[in-house]
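Objective 1.3, modelling of assemblies. Example input:
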Amino acid sequence: MFTKQKPTTIPITEIEQSAFCRTDETLDVKPLAEEFSASVRWQGIPSEYLHMDGKELTARIRNARNLLGDRLTILGHHYQREEVIQFADVRGDSFKLAQYAASLPYAEFIVFCGVHFMAETADILSNANQKVILPNITAGCSMADMASTEDVIDCWNDLENILGQGGIVPITYMNSTADIKALCGRNNGIVCTSSNATKVMEWAFQKGERVLFLPDQHLGRNTALKLGIALEDMVVWNPFKNLGGNTEDSIKNAKIILWQGHCSVHTRFNVNQINKAREKYTDVNILVHPECTMDVVQAADYNGSTEYIIKTVTESPPGSKWGIGTEISLVSRLAKENPDKLIFCIDSVVCPCSTMYRIHPAYLLWVIEELINDNIINQVLVNDDTAEQSHIALERMLSIV
Ligand code: 13P
Ligand code: SF4
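Predicted structure (tokens):
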């Protein structure tokens, strides 16, 4: 029953998270060779792509894209850079992009401008003959990396030993590997995204008395609080400790077990930043992503997924003021697209998600130019068993929201 004490390992993606933070520069694209100076892992790429400037990259991507026509669909998450998202046939939050991938009748190739777990999900939900490509294979997610398959299986075995089979319903946030989605699929569990976490958690509590929520403790806690679950009824599972740092009794008494994971981008936001924004502009609206900590979400006026953030700001009256707590590429785009409103990031440091940022337009150009020659680079392919089991958990989500 007891797991071995494991050494604490911080995911590399978490260590690299602040690599592109800056205080005095814009987010405009630089040739990839210059970006290579940031100390993160980059995928190797033929040297001809290293020195192209933004203008040349844009022109060549447009040309390659036109040559591929209907054979190619480009999906883009809202956190992508301006120079990349402009080529997306569909932009969305992780839920909308998953729904879209599940309903794409044609397109031989789906190039996913986002991060690895999103591309895996697109592969699981798309047709067997469609190929999903991630332009830079090192574009992972530091939060997803905080829940290794091995640690989650250990946790699940411990919980089943203590609570018995069927004693707890697993919910995994979309930001997790296909293996973890598969574990949820085969154990009567489900996937959620930030746009449907409340409905999914309600569904889970109709199926059982307790929920394991992973890997984002903050989204789990914020959602449980919305459903009226008290903080005393939640425990945190630290994968580096025996029984996650809990006792058998505390696990039996809990309603929610929250995996100790977080998003390094959203945990940068704090209540002090919100107070400062309110001091500066008395009528400002504070809008944050639910991956922020509980105190930030509670101090904000609104919270929701990236799609919700865009809709809320876009539909607000001219002259309104918005202090936003989410990834900077999205906040900058919102500010550009809504010049009649005051829109700013509540963190004064410009700090993009370092893994989303790795989809530099040079990688997009490389993979689509190779597709013209029928050469597939960076296909994301989930094995059949994992795909089948994770499909069950994804379908449960798609059918209730
Ligand atoms: P959304 O589902 O709101 O797009 O969020 C995905 C994500 O990774 C946020 O950090
Ligand atoms: Fe992962 Fe956070 Fe980046 Fe989203 S913003 S992809 S949760 S690291």
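The chain has a mean pLDDT of 95.
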